[in-house]
Amino acid sequence: MQTRVCIIGGGPSGLMLSQLLHLQGIDTVVLERQSREYVLSRIRAGVLEHGFAQLMREARCGERMDREGEIHEGFQIAHDGKMDRVDLHKYSGGSSVVVYGQTELTRDLYEARDLMKGVVIHNADDVQLRDIKSVKPYVTYRAGDEIVRIDCDFIIGADGFHGVSRNSIPKTVLKEYEKVYPFGWLGVLSRTKPVSPELIYAKHERGFALCSLRSQVLSRYYIQVPLSDKVEEWSDEAFWNELKRRLPPDVSEQLITGPSIEKSIAPLRSFVAEPMRYGQLFLAGDAAHIVPPTGARGLNSAASDIYYLYHAMVAHYKNGDSSGLDSYSAKALARVWKAQRFSWWMTTLLHTFPDSIEYDRQLQQTELAYLFSSDAAQRSLAENYVGLPF
Ligand code: FAD
Ligand code: DHB
């Protein structure tokens, strides 16, 4: 098989790039290790920044998002017995975020790929990247007993944190930065009316909690839990009770509970791999960087990688201009690190750290007091949350 761009990973990053390139007449093959049903059963991101939503529209996949997604112009931070609102619209110069589930967005991308007869190969086992330093790289995968070879010009590693692409870069070249947090998020999806029209990030001494949503009939809640906790140990009842304890009393009273339709624990991690290009291989999204979910930056960091890669590939194929490909790693990493900074800041601000000393806790409180007393601080939070320019 032959293609121009072989994309490893059929998550949002891989599908989005494939769709954008196809619209420009650049053909791609997407290799996904899992079945489509499996990919679409994962519950992940819920908040999309303005730039990501714009890319969805550019990829001609934004119709349902624009119809069913909710525009949010602010969110709440519950702390010290009160709720303060962050006015995103006011402090970001009129911008906002879109609440639309990653699952739905991925479904839209798959549908768009199908409509254009894009090649997405599922259940691709044992994907291997070959000759990535040469101008004629290729990828192999196993389909049943058969080994299939795909010759291409470029390989995109969009295969998430546990993929093969990043590990195809020699250890002597790759530099990895990692910070692992001593807790995770236990998330519950329930078919209940959300407790609040806007997201509530709650700082509480028992641990952080987040009230989010997917629609007016579908709620997503999270609580901070120790890494040693197992999801099977958390009954629905125990989850709701703990969530209620961490929310302000007037919010808890309003909380409508119901059976969980998904429950999982996600560990919190910050991670960056450099460089994001090696030979003809380009890393994008979670394959190159991970953030703790607190500032809703993960998928949104992937969006800028895709934006830079898309424009660089188009300039290369249409104008013979490879400068965008050459500067990709440096350009992408500059924005990636800003998302890292913001996610680390928001995580540190709102979570309970098991090894914190009184001094740290005073600083957390002071940071929050400063935030809500300073227009400059709220502007900084808002511009990062809605997404820094690409
Ligand atoms: P992935 O979604 O991980 O996709 C990679 C794909 O590659 C997968 O389908 C995988 O099966 C496939 N793959 C892996 N290995 C191989 C292989 N060897 N061969 C072929 N295919 C392979 N981000 C936000 O911006 N906003 C939020 O509100 C937000 N909330 C989150 C909440 C939670 C609880 C979690 C866990 C994450 C959240 N994120 C959020 C982060 C966001 O979900 C990720 O950043 C996003 O999924 C990254 O997309 P991706 O396509 O780069 O990687
Ligand atoms: C969601 C996840 C986040 O990390 C966040 O900051 C906001 C919302 C969510 O899954 O809905």
Catalogue the unreliable spans. none
Strand order of the largest sheet: 6-5-14-15-16-13-17-20
Counting DSSP H or I runs of 4 or more residues, the number of helices is 12
Distinct small-molecule ligands in the complex: flavin-adenine dinucleotide, 3,4-dihydroxybenzoic acid
Q: Give Rg in angstroms.
A: 21 Å
Please report the total strand number as a whole number: 20
Helix content: 25-40%
Strand content: 25-35%
Morphology: globular
Structural category is alpha+beta
What does the main sheet amount to?
A: 8 strands, mixed
Oligomer: single chain
* Overall pLDDT level: 96
Report the end-to-end length measured between terminal Cα atoms: 34 Å
Give a brief rundown of this model:
With 390 residues, the chain is α+β, with helices and mostly antiparallel strands. The chain contains twelve helices and 20 strands.
Q: How would you explain this protein's 3D organization?
A:
The protein is α+β, with helices and mostly antiparallel strands and 390 residues long. It has helices spanning 12-23, 36-39, 50-58, 63-68, 88-91, 102-115, 236-246, 249-254, 298-319, 323-350, 358-371, 375-386; strands at residues 5-8, 28-31, 47-49, 70-72, 74-79, 82-87, 97-99, 119-121, 125-130, 138-143, 146-151, 154-157, 175-190, 200-202, 209-215, 218-226, 260-274, 277-278, 281-283, 289-290. A hairpin with a 6-residue loop joins strand 14 (200-202) and strand 15. The two termini are 34 Å apart. Bound molecules: flavin-adenine dinucleotide and 3,4-dihydroxybenzoic acid.
